[in-house]
């Protein structure tokens, strides 16, 4: 007997809630903001819009479905099931936060603050939730075409000690403080050519990440490589501020990775980290001599269009 789908509503603590938690009361938080030239009313209104959106989406879940709710800080402790339909209620970045914990479950992005969010990943309004959820049936979760979902490419890093990290936008390899990282960089199937480098780190990004950090580096470099589309099996990589010296080179500083290609990095310093989508607190820890392989992930994020 198959289980009914479960709607998992993913949200995050609002700025208002964080301020009140930090300062104790609404009045104290308002005084703090006023002393810095900000208006508490604006922050409170965004909080109310966010909570109204969450309530509207909750009420739109079909009665026969099961429900669960998870806050962003608890994602690493939440167990997603194959039959889940994930509804992200918030900002674009919240979709990226949840992506690495999923394995084929359809995701619906609900924008709680239209006009303030770019709406790249949270593409829908709260009032559309009922129609979207009704279209995602238990049988429809089997294929992307059945749910009208885009299969967004993800990037993964796998270390030689089996540590693994998956991200939707980009993966960064370097030092925790973005200081000089020392390593040997190479491309698989490139005749074994590697280069010793000292830089501010290496960034490997997807087409989804091409709307954020990856794009800023791409623009700064004036790169001739076209940015990948979110569903394209192609990644771009850039070495940030490579430093030429008698022992380090700058010939391998940018390129693209097709679906079967990978970038390899061997650590030549005491400690490097690998983190994804800007979350340094969830990082792989690498030490001298370890090697990490970065390329397109076999999993995709199924984002309902």
From TrEMBL:
Recorded hits in InterPro entries, A to Z, give: ATP-NAD_kinase_N, ATP-NAD_kinase_PpnK-typ_C, NAD/diacylglycerol_kinase_sf
Q: State the PANTHER family in the record.
A: NAD KINASE 2, MITOCHONDRIAL, PTHR13158
Q: Where is the signal peptide?
A: none
Q: What Gene3D superfamilies would the database entry show?
A: Probable inorganic polyphosphate/atp-NAD kinase, domain 1, Probable inorganic polyphosphate/atp-NAD kinase, domain 2
Q: Which organism is it from?
A: Streptomyces hyaluromycini
Under which name does UniProt file this protein? Answer: ATP-NAD kinase
């Amino acid at each position: 007997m198959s289980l009914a789908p479960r709607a998992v509503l993913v949200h995050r603590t609002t700025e208002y809630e964080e301020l009140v938690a930090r300062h104790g009361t609404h009045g104290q938080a308002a005084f703090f903001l006023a002393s810095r030239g900000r208006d508490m009313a604006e922050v409170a209104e965004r909080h109310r819009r966010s909570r109204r959106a969450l309530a509207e989406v909750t009420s739109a879940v079909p009665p026969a479905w099961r429900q669960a709710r998870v806050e962003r800080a608890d994602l690493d402790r939440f167990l997603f099931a194959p039959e889940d339909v994930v509804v992200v209620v918030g900002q674009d970045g919240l979709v990226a936060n949840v992506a690495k914990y999923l394995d084929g479950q359809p995701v619906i992005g609900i924008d709680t603050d239209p006009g303030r969010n770019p709406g790249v990943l949270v593409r829908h309004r709260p009032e559309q939730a009922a129609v979207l959820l009704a279209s995602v049936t238990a049988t429809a979760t089997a294929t992307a075409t059945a749910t009208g979902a885009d299969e967004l490419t993800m990037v993964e890093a796998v270390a030689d000690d089996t540590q693994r990290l998956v991200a939707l936008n980009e993966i960064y390899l370097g030092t925790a403080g973005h200081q000089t990282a020392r390593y040997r960089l190479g491309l698989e199937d490139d005749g074994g050519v590697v280069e010793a480098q000292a830089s501010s780190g290496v960034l490997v990004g997807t087409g989804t990440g091409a709307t954020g950090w990856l794009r800023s580096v791409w623009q700064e470099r004036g790169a001739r490589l076209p940015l990948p589309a979110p569903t394209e099996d192609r990644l771009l990589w850039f070495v940030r501020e490579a430093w030429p010296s008698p022992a380090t080179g700058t010939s391998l500083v940018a390129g693209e990775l097709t679906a079967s290609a990978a970038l390899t990095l061997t650590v030549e310093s005491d400690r490097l980290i690998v983190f994804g989508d800007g979350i340094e607190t969830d990082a792989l820890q690498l030490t001298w001599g370890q090697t990490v392989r970065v390329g397109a992930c076999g999993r995709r994020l199924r984002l309902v269009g």
